[in-house]
Q: What sequence folds into this?
C-alpha cells in the first residue's frame, strides 16, 4: 500500500496473521522498517518487487522492537 512517494507498507502474510513492514526509499537508500518472521524472505522479495524495489537494493533495516514478528528475518 503506497503511503507517499518513497514510502510503502508491504503486506507479509503468515500462517496466523499478516504483518505490514514499511519500505522507505530515495535515490541513495532503501530502508526496511521491521523484518518480519523467520522464513519470510521470499515473501519480502515478492512484495518488494511489487513495489518496484529489488531486494538487493535494501541497505538499511530499522527494528522498532524485539518481538519475533519484527526481527525474525534479519539474518536472512
A:
Amino acid at each position: 500500500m503506497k503511503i507517499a512517494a518513497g514510502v510503502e507498507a508491504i503486506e507479509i502474510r503468515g500462517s496466523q496473521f499478516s504483518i505490514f513492514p514499511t519500505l522507505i526509499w530515495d535515490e541513495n537508500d532503501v530502508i526496511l522498517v521491521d523484518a518480519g518472521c523467520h522464513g519470510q524472505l521470499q515473501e519480502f522479495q515478492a512484495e518488494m518487487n511489487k513495489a518496484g524495489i529489488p531486494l538487493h537494493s535494501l541497505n538499511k533495516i530499522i527494528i522498532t522492537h524485539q518481538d519475533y514478528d519484527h526481527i525474525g528475518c534479519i539474518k536472512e
In short: The chain is about 20% helix and 30% strand.
